[in-house]
Specification:
The chain is α+β, with helices and mostly antiparallel strands. It contains six helices and seven strands, in the order βαααββαβαβαββ. The strands form two sheets. A four-stranded antiparallel β-sheet has the order 1-2-3-4, sandwiched between helices. The chain has a three-stranded antiparallel β-sheet with strand order 5-7-6, sandwiched between helices.
Length: 169
């Protein structure tokens, strides 16, 4: 199931955050800047409502994917694009903990993300992945993603694949 994070999720979310950090991926986006777990939970509520957004942020739904109480992944859905998101970040981001991969978790998270996006009025979403991220590209293509183009990320020179997915299937 996909739901908001709560006070009880701190330990496993911090473990997941460390696991993904070891792969260079930011699992609990903004956790370090928030300082404490409860401050981060408050921050998630605020950004979902679009209040007190840090500079450059857009309203965003950020939730965890759980299987029988175990945190297996996370999903973020940006409610609109800014210039950076339109170029490389896209509307939807997800990650699955290393021990829970290859069981359809990312595909389920992305499907849920499409429902969230539709709920905030988006008819189609931009979803991007690094050109070499085969697992993510297959996840996006499996959800109906149509490749728009491959762009160079400013600053890093990395290549990003940009896909559009209709939210109404
Ligand atoms: C990318 C990621 C989210 C995939 O999660 P997952 O739960 O293993 O993905 P799924 O089980 O839903 O698989 C989705 C598709 O990818 C394929 N896939 C998954 N891992 C793969 C791998 N290592 N190599 C090749 N294909 C892979 C699956 O076979 C499936 O394709 P299919 O439907 O054609 O069979 C996960 O590897 C991850 O969290 N990576 C680090 C963070 C990240 O890259 N996030 C995405 C940023 S764009």
């Amino acid at each position: 199931m996909v739901r908001s994070f709560t006070a009880d999720d701190e330990a496993q979310a911090r473990t997941a955050h460390a696991e993904l950090a070891a792969e260079g991926f930011d699992f609990c986006l903004g956790l370090e800047q928030s300082g404490t777990w409860s401050a981060w939970l408050d921050h998630l509520v605020e950004i979902e409502r679009g209040r007190d957004l840090p500079p450059g942020w857009v309203p965003e739904t950020f939730v965890g994917g759980f299987a029988g109480g175990t945190l297996v992944g996370r999903l973020s859905v940006r409610h609109r694009l800014n210039a950076h998101l339109a170029h490389v970040g896209g509307h939807i981001g997800y990650a699955v903990r290393p021990g829970h991969r290859r069981r359809g978790r990312a595909s389920a998270l992305l499907r849920h993300g499409l429902l969230v996006a539709r709920g905030v009025g988006l008819e189609r979403v931009l979803v991007t992945c690094t050109d070499t991220n085969v697992a993510s590209a297959r996840t996006i293509e499996g959800a109906g993603g149509e490749l728009e183009d491959v762009v160079v990320v400013p600053g890093t020179g990395e290549l990003k694949r940009r896909y559009w997915i209709a939210t109404h299937g």
